[in-house]
Amino acid sequence: MPQAAGAEEETNVRVAARVRPLLARDTAQNYCSCITAQPGTNQLVVGTRRGFTFDLVFDTDASQSSVYVGCVSQLLEGSMQGYNATVLAYGQTGSGKTHTMGTGQPVPEGSDEEGIVPKVIRNSFHHIEKHKGSVDFKVSCCYLEIYNEDIRDLLQPGGHKGHIAIREDATGGIKVTGIHAETCSSAEEMFRCLSDGSVQRTTGATLMNEQSSRSHSIFTLILEQRRRLTNGGGEGSEEDYVTAKFHLVDLAGSERAKRTGAVGSRFKESVAINSGLLALGNVISALGDPAKRGSHVPYRESKLTRLLQDSLGGNSRTVMIACVSCADIDFEETLNTLKYAHRARNIKNKPVVNHDPRTAQLAAMQDEIDALREQLQRA
Ligand code: ADP
Ligand code: MG
Fold it and tell me: Which tens digits make up the pLDDT trace of 347-365?
């Protein structure tokens, strides 16, 4: 674990549910809504079955801004203090994950259609602009896609797959090596990374048979800050170095993908679950199920769970947004999504401020010296 500034806090993964309205294609087929949000509560009732309670519920008329304010703005404030953060969008294809994350087609600046990722980018640079007199910031981003257990770097030409590896750093945090991190000096530069990477993702999709609904994408902002500790300047003045990673994840569609059967059963359709989501479900069970507490957590079952190890049960503040369609045709998938996401509410994370280990060690030594000095004075 990175060095903590103070006591380690424990905080649950927050889970929000967002219901997308009926689309024209739903009404054209006479589909009806099968979800009711209970006013004044955070409860969703699907059909006539029991309700699900979440930390936050966004009904069909919720704006993109209300989702951002409810789920994300606090995370960004934390990142500016040095806490890692993660937002995961989960749900079946067509339920509004990409709409919510804002990683699809760019929308005009300031439009309420703007999703989470562009808002995080814009607000990060606003913050930097406001504090640039007293703090030196470095902001960079990475953009990855995981498809069939392959990691593609969306910021490199052709989605370069090279020698990408997932490792633990000296502090036990997860880091990915062999990928490009683009340093950006303005929101516009980072928007370019987002749109170039998103284009790479969709280009792959048309070539590789609906890849985008079967792949996970992870856009990561890396925020580094050097703050001069006011010590009169000159000799003896110190710097505090704080860093945070903000992962923004658009997960693969959670529906079971129909696949044409293999040789010998050519016309039989089999049903396959995305391996990353299967592993993610196992990690959620191991961490969230009170009966399994303390048992082995199978992070290494997939690239996705290994990459998100800090986000689930580790050093991050994490929000999962379960996206569901209100259409009755999607009833079963909606129920599956809500059940899956609901279990994540039990996961406990341990976020800490990520100081430079050397700075933190020095601070700890200084504390010790102070304590010893006090003891001496009392003796
Ligand atoms: P996913 O990424 O989960 O496959 P999308 O984000 O692409 O789903 O959404 C599918 C369609 O539904 C898109 O046309 C999108 O614009 C629309 N949509 C999704 N969520 C909403 C919402 N909350 N309000 C209005 N339209 C939405
Ligand atoms: Mg999508």
Answer: 999 999 998 766 656 666 7
What ipTM was estimated for this complex?
0.99
d(CA 139, CA 122) in angstroms, rounded, equals 12
Tell me the one-letter amino acid at 308.
L
Residue at token pair 């950006």: 184
How far apart, in whole angstroms, are the C-alpha atoms of residue 240 and residue 354?
Answer: 11
Whether 273 contacts 256, CB under 8 Å: yes
Ligand in nearest proximity to the CA of 201: 2
The pair of structure tokens assigned to 305 is 């769970």
Atom of ligand 1 nearest to the CA of 60: 23
Tokens matching residue 218 = 């992870």
Please tell me whether residue 108 adopts helix, strand or coil conformation.
Answer: coil
Of the candidates 344, 290, 270, 342, the one whose C-alpha atom is nearest the C-alpha of residue 13 is 344
Residue 52 has pLDDT above 50, yes or no: yes
Instruction: Fill in the amino acid letter for 317.
Output: R
Tokens for 100, please give them: 């919510």
- Enter the pTM of the model: 0.89
Ligand 2 centre distance from Cα of residue 96 (Å): 7
